[in-house]
Amino acid sequence: MSALLELDDIHFGYPGQAPVLAGASLALGPGERIALVGANGTGKSTLLRIALGLIRPARGTIRAFGQPCARETDFQQMRRRVGLVFQDPDDQLFCPTVAEDIAFGPLNLGLSRAEALRRVDAVLEQLALTALRNRVTHHLSGGEKRLVTLATVLVMRPEVLLLDEPTNALDPENEARLLAILQALPQAILLVSHDPAFRARLVQRELHLAEGRLGPHPHPR
Amino acid sequence: MAHLLSLAPPHPGGATGGPGPIHGLDPRGRVLAAAAFAVVVTGLSSLPVLALAAVAALAMLPLSGLPPGPTLRRMVMMDGFILVMLVLLPFTTPGTPALILPGGLVATREGLRLAAEIALTANAVILMLMVLVGTLDPVRLGHALARLRLPLRLVHLLLFTVRYIEVLRAEYDRTRQAMRARAFRPGSNRHTWVSLGQLVGMMLVRALERSERILQAMKCRGFTGQIPLLDDLSFGAGDRLFGVLFALALGCLIAMEVALVRAA
Ligand SMILES: Nc1ncnc2c1ncn2[C@@H]1O[C@H](COP(=O)(O)OP(=O)(O)OP(=O)(O)O)[C@@H](O)[C@H]1O
Ligand SMILES: [Mg+2]
Questions:
Q1: For a pocket test of ligand 1, which of A36, A44, A214 has the largest count of ligand atoms closer than 8 A to its C-beta?
Q2: Is residue A74 pLDDT above 50, yes or no?
Q3: Cβ(A160)–Cβ(A28) under 8 Å?
Q4: For residue B219, with 0-12 CB atoms within 10 Å meaning exposed, 13-18 middle and 19 or more buried, which class applies?
Q5: What is the pLDDT of residue A1?
Q6: Rounded CA gap, B43 and B47, in Å?
Q7: What is the pLDDT of residue B99?
Q8: Does A43 contact ligand 1 (Cβ within 6 A)?
Q9: pLDDT of residue B1
Q10: What's B52's DSSP letter?
Q11: Are B183 and A156 within 8 A, CB to CB?
Q12: HSE on the CB side for A74, CA within 13 Å?
C-alpha cells in the first residue's frame, strides 16, 4: 500500500521559541482515517500547515501521492488534491459572500464560472447550507462559519482531507450531521479533535503528539 | 515610514536601542527638542549652516546608543522617497546653466543648490528625529505626546496602531496561507485581481469590525475615552541642562545663518 500523505522526521520551531516538532512522522493510506491527539499547543495545527507546505520544516521530508514535495511548485500541485479545514474559520473565509468564497477553490482549479457555481450549489445542498448561499461571510455565526469552511474545502473534491477541530462551535445536531457526512466520504481523513466520542465514531486509529513526536495513543481504547 | 521611527520591534516598557546617555532624558524634552530642531533647520537656507546642522545631528548619533550602520541605512531609505525630486530639481529649476548633459539637458546652478538644500535639511531632521524620538519606545512616545497636550485621539491612534499593526500583518499572512491551501496561484488574470481585492477589502472590513469589538470590550472594562497613562515622567536637572545646551546650539545655527545672509 502506498501512502497518500507521508511526513517523515519533521522538525520545526517558530523563530525564537522552543522547537514544536522534533521528529514527527506519519503516513496516511488511501481511505484511512486517522486522528491526531495532543494537548493544547503541542503543534497539531502546525503539523497540518507543514503537511501542505504553508510553513517549511527545519528538517524532514513530505511526500504526497508518492511524490516528494520540497519546492513551492510541488506543494502547489498537491494542494489541488489535499484539502485543509483551518482551526479558525476567520482565517479561511475572505470573500464577501458565502457563494463567492466557496467558488474560490474551484476557480483556482481552473473550472469555468458556471461549472464552479454548479459545484457550489451541489456542496451547499450536501451540507444543507443552501439558505446561507448569499449571506455575508463575516456575519455568519461561529457554527455557520465552521460548516461553510468545510464546504469551501469539500467543493474542491480533494482526495485527502485534513480537518483541524471541525466540530468546534457546532451544536449537537450539526455535529451529528457533520459526522454522518464525514463517515459517508470515501476520502482519507486526518482529523484533529479534542472530542473522544467524535473521534471514536470516525477514525480507526489515533496518533498521540507529545514532545514533538507522534506515537500510538498512550491510552488505547 | 514606521520603521524610520523604529516602531518595528515594540519593547513594552523598555527603550529601543542601546542605553546611550539620551536614554535617561525625559521623553517630553526629547520630543520638544526634535520639533524645535526641525523648525529651525527647515528655516535655514545657507548651505554651510545646513551642513553644520547635519553634522550636529550625526554627532548626536553616538549619544543615542543606536547602531550607526542600520540607522544610517534607514536614513538612506528615507532619501529613496525624495530621490526622484532631488534628481529632477536641477533640470527643472530655471537659472544659470551649470552642467549640460548629452541630449541637451541643462542643470542649473540654482537647481543644484536647491537640491542640496533639501537633501541636507531632510537628512539632518530625520537623523535628529531618529536619535531623539526614534529611541523612545512607542508607548513612552505616546505618553509623552499625551502629556504635551497633543489631542488624545491622535495619541490613541498611535498607541493602537502600534498594538494592532502586528495583528493585521498576522491576519494577512494567515489569509494568504488559506488562499494557497485552496490552490490559489496569483497570475495576471481577473480571478487573481478579484481575489486579492477581496482579501484587502475583507481585511479593512474586519479591522473596522474588530475595532468595534475592541471598543466594546474596553467599555466593558470602564473605558470612557481616556486611557490612564501610568508612568509618571519627571523633568530633572539633566533634562534642564540638555534643554539649555540644545537651545544654545539652535541659537548658534540661527546666528550663523543671519550673519551669512547679511554678508551675502
Ligand atoms: N504563528 C506563530 N508564531 C509563533 N508561535 C506559534 C505560532 N503559531 C503557533 N505557535 C506556537 O506553537 C505551538 C504549537 O501551536 P499549534 O497551533 O500547532 O498547537 P495545537 O496543537 O494546534 O494546539 P490547540 O490544540 O490549542 O489547537 C504553541 O506553543 C503556539 O504557541
Ligand atoms: Mg490547533
A1: A44
A2: yes
A3: yes
A4: exposed
A5: 52
A6: 12
A7: 80
A8: yes
A9: 36
A10: H
A11: yes
A12: 15
A193 C-beta closer than 6 A to ligand 1: no
* Residue B9 scores a pLDDT above 50: no
Per the model's pLDDT, the better-predicted residue between A52 and A138 turns out to be: A52
Please state the CATH superfamily assignment of the domain spanning residues A5-88+143-216 in this structure: P-loop containing nucleotide triphosphate hydrolases (3.40.50.300)
Determine contact, residues B123/B79, Cβ cutoff 8 Å: yes
> What's the angle, vertex CA B186, arms to CA B181 and CA B192, rounded to 5?
100
Q: Report the C-alpha gap between A8 and A61 in whole angstroms.
A: 5
Q: Which is more confident, B232 or A179? A: A179
Give the max Cα distance, chain A.
Answer: 50
Q: Say if residues B97 and B105 touch (Cβ distance below 8 Å).
A: no
Reading phi first (left if > 0) and then psi (alpha if -120 to 50, else beta), residue A191 is in: beta
Extract the C-alpha cell encoding A81: 488534491
CA distance B82 to A196: 62
For residue A221, what pLDDT is reported?
40
Cell numbers representing residue B258 in the block: 543671519
Is A54 in contact with B177 (Cβ distance < 8 A)? Answer: yes
Residue B221 near chain A (CB below 8 Å): no
> Counting ligands in written order, which one lies closest to the CA of residue A209?
1
- Expressed in angstroms and rounded, the spacing between residue A87 Cα and the centre of ligand 2 is 6
| Pairing status of strand A160-164 against strand A188-192 | parallel
Alpha helix stretches (DSSP H) within chain A? 44-51, 72-79, 89-92, 98-108, 113-126, 142-154, 172-184, 196-202
Q: Enter the ipTM.
A: 0.71
Q: What is the number of other CB atoms lying within 10 angstroms of the CB of residue A188?
A: 21
Q: Which of A78, A124, A81 is nearest to A101 (CA)?
A: A124
Is this model's pTM higher than 0.90 or not?
no
Question: pLDDT for A166-179, tens place per residue?
Answer: 998 899 998 998 99
Asked if B181 contacts A79 with a C-beta cutoff of 8 angstroms, the reply is: yes
- For residue B230, the CA-to-ligand 2 centroid distance in Å is 36
What is the residue-averaged pLDDT of chain B?
A: 82
Domain boundaries, chain A: 5-88+143-216
Q: Is B251 exposed, middle or buried (0-12, 13-18, 19+ CB in 10 A)?
A: exposed
At how many degrees (to 10) do helices B190-220 and B152-181 cross? Answer: 130
Tell me the C-alpha distance between A43 and A13, whole Å.
9
